[in-house]
Amino acid sequence: MRSAEQRAEGAGPFTTRLTWRPPGGGTAVWESRPARRRGVIAVREPGARGSSHASADRVSLSRLRRLNTVAATAFVIGGALFAVGAGIAQFGSGDALTSASVYFAGGLFFNTGGYVSLLQAVNAPRHVPGGEGRLVTRGWRWWSYEPTRVDWLSAFVLFAGTLVFAVDLVESFREGLNAHQVNRRIWAPDVIGCVLFLISGHLGFVEICHGRGPCLRCRGLGWWIVAVNQVGSVLFMVSALAAYTHPATDTLVNAGIANWGTLLGAVAFSVGGVLQLCEHP
């Protein structure tokens, strides 16, 4: 006997929550983020007041634990290095090479965190439609193409943003650039990377809120992680806009805002990484 699916929720082509009645009675609820990050499905037995959790197998849980630790640690370190780089730019000797070197090192950790976040989505245990609330482990994959899954799309856009940031971090080592070259090679990729980060954060809210628009879920650790990271993305965008170079004067719109925006945004990503360490199976 197969279970009957009761309700699918989400936004557009994305399904972020499924509720159905298993053959033995009660209800089972699959949600995208808890299944992907923690490897669990909420199950309520017949007559029970509260819910328990059906977990994925040990292989999946061990895999999720390792990936979560690597991704979270990478964002903690990457954010810390970005904050140090911004601090050097704001309070240091003004040596652009030193600041650029620290930013570049932080960017490598952001690249790592972005790709491992994508691996989390690619290798997450999958729900079996019509099953009794089971999550099935698939073989390890280094890549997939699943744009109709909001978790995959959010992670992919985040990773793409870290790669675009890498472009302006490399270009920042170039010397003798005029204002137009700086804006085209450094500032434009910076803005594009910030936009991609904001889109990724928005998709993260879509996943958590199940397509119901902005929601407030202060009791949910996943919501706090997405919210803190989105604050960091907003601050990065403010920093990027303030870092535009006036062609007539070769000066930034506001160097102080650019440095402080980067510093505070980086701290937000480090805090998000610390919170993510707690969101384990």
Strands of the largest sheet, in order across it? 1-2-3-4-5
Q: Which ranges are low-confidence, i.e. pLDDT below 50, for 5 or more consecutive residues?
A: none
Count of helical segments? 7
Measure the end-to-end span. 30 Å
- Mean pLDDT figure: 87
Number of strands: 9
Strand percent estimate? 5-15%
User: How many structural domains?
Assistant: 2
Describe this structure in words.
The protein starts with a strand and ends with a helix. It has two domains: 4-55, no CATH class; 58-277. The chain is built from seven helices and nine strands. The chain has a five-stranded antiparallel sheet with strand order 1-2-3-4-5. The protein is α+β, with helices and mostly antiparallel strands and 281 residues long. Strand 2 (14-21) and strand 3 form a beta hairpin.
What can be said about this structure in brief?
By secondary structure, the protein is α+β, with helices and mostly antiparallel strands. It has 7 helices and 9 strands; from the N terminus they run βββαββααββαααββα.
